[in-house]
Specification:
Structural class: mainly alpha
CATH architecture of one domain: Orthogonal Bundle
Low-confidence stretches: 1-6, 213-218
Radius of gyration: 22 Å
CATH class of one domain: Mainly Alpha
Shape: elongated
CATH topology of one domain: Tetracycline Repressor, domain 2
Number of strands: 0
Helix content: 55-70%
Largest sheet: none
Mean pLDDT: 90
Strand content: under 5%
Length: about 220
């Protein structure tokens, strides 16, 4: 390919517009997840976000078009923030017990010094749409299932290593998730003692197992 046909250098003004658009979208979504964590996803509106961010209502609406699109984008943004705050920092720990403990430790920090203004985003928004089938409920359900799968996979790794007593990984993940959701509510009410109860629950689930009597646990390739 010769120089004439290469198209020349990138269009700098276009690049700058794209960068500004991405920054504006990020600013809106950061405010949107806080609003949704406090007042629910139905509390989101173009006008409110425009007022809160100092942008024009037309500018906000141009980026998201419909309220449902805005709500879905807020769910995805909250998911990305949660992964970065809770899941990603634990990935450096060995799979199984160490990673489970790291995940829960990060979750406690996430809820105790809230990443979102209203506390755990998932806890704040799930009940709002649990009886309303559609794309919003599907997105919230996806996130809940993915979170429990992450927990269940670590219980499986711990079982395979013989580090914990025999248990049902899916049930253990359900139990741990339920405790964390209850802890979020308690922390929002100012009950910091609940952190100790979370740690006790995790200790019970991670009781040491007998390595010589560990049942064979088959893990699918690539299980995180």
């Amino acid at each position: 390919m010769n120089e004439e046909s290469s198209g020349g250098p990138p269009d700098e003004p276009t690049d700058k517009r794209l960068l500004r658009g991405a920054r504006t979208r990020g600013l809106i979504l950061r405010r949107a997840v806080d609003v949704a964590s406090l007042d629910g996803l139905d509390g989101l509106s173009f006008g409110r976000l425009a007022t809160d961010t100092g942008l024009s209502k037309a500018g906000v609406q141009t980026l998201f078009r419909t309220k449902e699109t805005l709500q879905l984008a807020a769910i995805d943004h909250a998911r990305d923030m949660f992964v970065a705050a809770v899941i990603a920092p634990a990935r450096g720990e060995p799979r199984g017990v160490p990673r489970l403990r790291a995940i829960v430790e990060q979750w406690i920090a996430y809820a105790a010094a809230p990443l979102f203004a209203g506390g755990c985003f998932r806890a704040a928004t799930m009940t709002e749409f649990d009886s309303h089938p559609g794309p919003i409920r599907d997105a919230l359900l996806r996130d809940q299932r993915d979170w429990r799968t992450i927990l269940a996979n670590q219980f499986r790794h711990a079982l395979a290593a013989g580090d914990i007593e025999d248990l049902d990984p899916e049930l253990a993940a359900f139990q741990l998730d339920a405790v964390l959701l209850a802890a979020n509510t308690a922390l929002r009410l100012g009950d910091s003692d609940v952190v100790y109860q979370v740690q006790r629950t995790l200790d019970q689930l991670l009781r040491p197992g007998d390595r010589t009597a560990t049942a064979e646990i088959r893990l699918s390739p690539g299980t995180p």
